[in-house]
Amino acid sequence: MIFLRRQVPLLITLITGLVFAGQYYVPHPASEQMLTSVTKWLQIIGGFALVLGVSSLFHVHAVKIRRKEAGWGYSFVLYVGMLATIAVGLWANGKEAVDGAMTAFGWVYNFMMVPLQSTMFAILAFFIAS
Amino acid sequence: MKGETLDVKREQARSVCGGVVLLSAAFFLSISQAFAQTTLSPPQDLRVFDTPSDGGGSLTVLWSPAPYDSAATRYQVLLSEGTAVADPAAMKVVADFPANQRYVHESKWPWWTRPTTGDQHQFTLRNGKGVELKNGNAYSITVAAVLNGDRVMAPPVQATPEPNWINWNQMNNLLLALLFGGIVFYAISTARKREIFLRRIPGLDAVDEAIGRATELGKPILYMTGAHDMSDPSTIAAAVILGRVAKRTAAYETDLLVPHREPITMAVCQEITKQAYLEAGKPDLYKEDSNFFITSDQFSYTAAVDGIMLRKKPAANFYMGHYFAEALLLTETGASTGAIQIAGTDADHQLPFFVTTCDYTLIGEELYAASAYLSREPVQVGTLRGQDIGKALILGVIGVGTVLATLGVMFDAQWPKLFLDFFRDVK
Questions:
Q1: The domain spanning residue B371 has which CATH number?
Q2: Closest alpha carbon within chain B to A50
Q3: Which of B63, B77, B161, B402 has its CA 20 to 30 A from that of B383?
Q4: Count of CB atoms within 10 A of residue B261's CB?
């Protein structure tokens, strides 16, 4: 069991490290193809990592709501906002515009996310300057 | 009288003949010179071969310089598929350039892979822009010299592009990697035998002080790992230092807050923190949500962390890793809460802000040295020493190169260029 938990990951890391260090010196298309495939895999794994982040966010704010900690209402707003954005995004198939017409997801991004981000920066600047 | 007149006429005729002879000689001389300068001959010593050390789809053409090489004359590279060429004139022109261009010494080949001397002409045919070279297919290539509408060409030569398994142009990189790797292993073995001196880093000495103060005040510690993901060395260094900090907070039973803006970093830091609590013998004190994700948006993250600082009033703030515009917004807020602040970053553009607003700042390399400094493990200390020796070697070469380049300019000498070219190719 310890072998599976410690040695195997170390072995995988060692072999992968050596293979990709060697890949730098191999210009053959097969080598390039391998690098491309691994890069795609990395992007897919990166996508799954977002699940980790979102689940952490949900967990932290769920605890706040459950314990009715100070400012738990904001956590509730976060839940509503995030779920609504996910729903709208799925409905619009992740597209901001279709045939030149703005989708609901595009509207949320352009008229809610972007102004909120600008406002956040402006408030921070004001907070530091005040 | 009549005899005198005949003599004069004879003299005049002799002068005219002499002039005609001289003029004729001058005319033929100039014609022959002009003929020698502009006579086109087929390009000599034409060689075509698969471009070495590449992924295929490329052929290299070499030929000797000619007396007519000038901006007025042009070279054309012609290509056709297959080995049989019925009419070379019908081949496709794939490149056309002045005859005083495209020499081997202008190419990017390092000296150890150059196929010929630097004064030879060289042209590399690659896929793209009207050229399609398929690996394994044979092609006929020739070079033509063109002047004032006249064109002469060398006999076509056949070659086949193939992909290669080793890039010999990058062998310098491999050799240097092995050399520096060897130095690191040697330094590790030295570190195992005797203690290696590490100069004092006040920012790291203050880590214990900051954690102790937080413990005394009963307040949490806030630790940030920077804006980059786990592929960045500064984030890796920040995660390693987090392990040391977490071990101390576990021993002192102090709360640890680690807000993240990158999920993978968060997952890695969760494992590091868990391991630190296990090593400290306090696994029951470990909280899964001590590492938590906020957002990947820069200023939303900053606002959230500022809020945590104002609400929870942590006694110590650690800013390790790479930061951008949020640096000052975070550290100003932290300073206003009266927390001890320790920063460590390789973001040189943010260093002034950290230096002015934090109690201690680890500058650049000190961040990478932190792990070895805090642990004093021979492997880490030896690695640090090995890296320092490598950096000293590089700095030494830069110094020697600077002196050689200066000497070359001062004394108008060519010999320093040999060494400088060597350094350039090996680097």
A1: 3.40.50
A2: B263
A3: B402
A4: 25
Pair (B186, B207) in one structural domain: no
Which residue range is the domain that position B388 belongs to? 168-190+381-426
Q: How confident is the model at residue B71 (pLDDT cuts 50, 70, 90)?
A: very high
CB under 8 Å to B148, separation ≥6 — which residues? B38
CB A57 to CB B293 under 8 A? yes
Lowest mean pLDDT among A13-17, A46-50, B106-110: A46-50
First to last CA, chain A: 58
Q: Among B257, B207, B186, B250, which residue's Cα sits nearest to residue B371?
A: B207
Domain count across chain B: 3
Distance from the Cα of B118 to chain A's closest Cα (Å) equals 25
Both B89 and B180 in one domain: the answer is no
Note the pLDDT of residue B31.
46
Residues on chain B touching A46 (C-beta within 8 angstroms) = 264
Q: What is the pLDDT of residues B293-329, one digit of tens each?
A: 999 999 999 999 999 999 999 999 999 999 999 999 9
Q: At what angle do helices B415-426 and B171-193 cross, to 10 degrees?
A: 80
Same domain, B59 and B119: yes
**8 Å CB contact of B306 and A124:** yes
**Is the pLDDT score of B144 beyond 80?**
yes
Nearest residue of chain A to residue B169 (CA atoms): A25
Bridge partners, B260 (sequence order): B293
**Interaxial angle between packed helices B263-279 and B233-252, expressed in degrees from 0 to 180 and rounded to the nearest 10:** 40
Examine the predicted complex and report whether its ipTM is higher than 0.85.
no
Instruction: Give the CATH number, domain containing residue B82.
Output: 2.60.40
Average pLDDT, chain B: 89
Inter-chain contact A60–B289, Cβ cutoff 8 Å?
A: yes
Residues B316, B317, B322, CA angle at the centre, nearest 5°? Answer: 155
**Are residues B293 and A54, on separate chains, in Cβ contact within 8 Å?**
yes
* pLDDT tens-digit readout, B358-400: 999 999 989 999 888 988 889 989 999 999 999 999 999 999 9
Alpha helices (H) along B201-350: 202-217, 233-252, 263-279, 298-312, 326-336
**In 3-state terms, what secondary structure has residue A130?**
coil
Instruction: Report pLDDT for B10.
Output: 61
Residue with tokens 């390092």: B110
Which of B140, B159, B178 corresponds to the end of one domain?
Answer: B159
Asked whether residue B249 falls in the same domain as residue B117, the answer is no
CA–CA min distance A57, chain B (Å): 6
Instruction: Compute φ and ψ for B38, nearest 5 degrees.
Output: -110, -5
* Proportion of chain B in helix, strand, coil states, percent, rounded to 5: 50, 20, 30
Inform me whether the pLDDT recorded for B275 exceeds 90.
Answer: yes
> Do residue B217 and residue B358 come from a single domain?
yes
Residues B276, B246: Cα–Cα separation, whole Å: 6
